[in-house]
Design brief:
The structure is a homodimer. Chain A is α+β, with helices and mostly antiparallel strands. Chain A contains 6 helices and 10 strands; from the N terminus they run βαββββαββαααβββα.
Amino acid sequence: MSEFPITDRNQVKRVPKRGHYDSETVYRILDEGLICHVGFVQDQQPVVIPTLYARRGERLILHGARTSRMLQHIQAGHPVSVVVTLVDGLVVARSVFHHSMNYRSVVLFGRGRLIEPEGEKLEALEILTEHILRGRWRDARKPNRQELDATSVVAINIESASAKVRTGPPVDDEEDYQLPTWAGVIPLRQQALEPVADPRLRSGIPVPGYAARYDRTR
Amino acid sequence: MSEFPITDRNQVKRVPKRGHYDSETVYRILDEGLICHVGFVQDQQPVVIPTLYARRGERLILHGARTSRMLQHIQAGHPVSVVVTLVDGLVVARSVFHHSMNYRSVVLFGRGRLIEPEGEKLEALEILTEHILRGRWRDARKPNRQELDATSVVAINIESASAKVRTGPPVDDEEDYQLPTWAGVIPLRQQALEPVADPRLRSGIPVPGYAARYDRTR
């Protein structure tokens, strides 16, 4: 298990005991998450964009249209910050002040590059597809030349990262525990409902298992 | 219904037909979301941080410890970008290329200020608490002087905003509709599970309705 060095950039300053710097914790959160939020600086303005992603080793893979200004910015090598947040529950304390959330989040910093070799690009698209819906790559029609040319895939080197995790019940001030007020946790989960077939689906095609029993918990 | 002016900053450039600029659509997404991702620039570095929020009119309210570097940065008046993303489903197309997500997101830009008058600060904390868990403010112990002093609350003026929304089934290339491949949507929802009482909860205190039937859809 490797550790990300603690620097001013990735150090968890608010509630330090919630900070984790080991790659195992960081990667587990990255692998469970579905979307990330990418921050970059354009004309001195901060810009944040939500997008799909996947992890490959020490890199994050993003993709999109070749004309995407976010991808063009990233492949130019500018610094980016990427965040993945998993919301696990509302922490309902007796006092307003101690209300909180249970969550697992990763904040990482890095720089990207365009993935150009066709083999590497296809492999990255497979990893992305499988991150989103494991088992799908095999079944779907693969990208053709025109689609590949219209798509940019970038790899962001994870230079620095930290995870922040809160779990468990509320922590109230000692004297508040006697209050006649309910306290506890409301667990929250991202859950998949019954798949909805495309109205144009050919008849007789069953729902694949990976769609019928979709679950991101790893 | 008012409109946010379309400028280079908030214009939805990728798939423009998914862009919405009316305040009704933007506010509805902001009011349903639970957490936001705040982007800012510190020492030329983009930084993104997840946090709770609430909307009050044309402003976004954030809060946290007085020592939070994010809040100190915001109250100094630096520009920020805030994103709220609601994930509604996976769009499973016949081709890898046309895989997508159903989602509703808001990207906004603005600048913040510290809320200092005690009355306004308490009102903002009430709005925040009610945004997270409607009905809770009434039941919880209100902040005391020490807690108020330890908490910063900022209001971010929404200068510019746009929403991006995708709904509906996959859109495949015409010739792919004949493929023997399942296609459709896997709906995703953030769902609340059964509340878990604090192990130190006094006996005989029932779960309040707002915790037992927690639902963010508006």
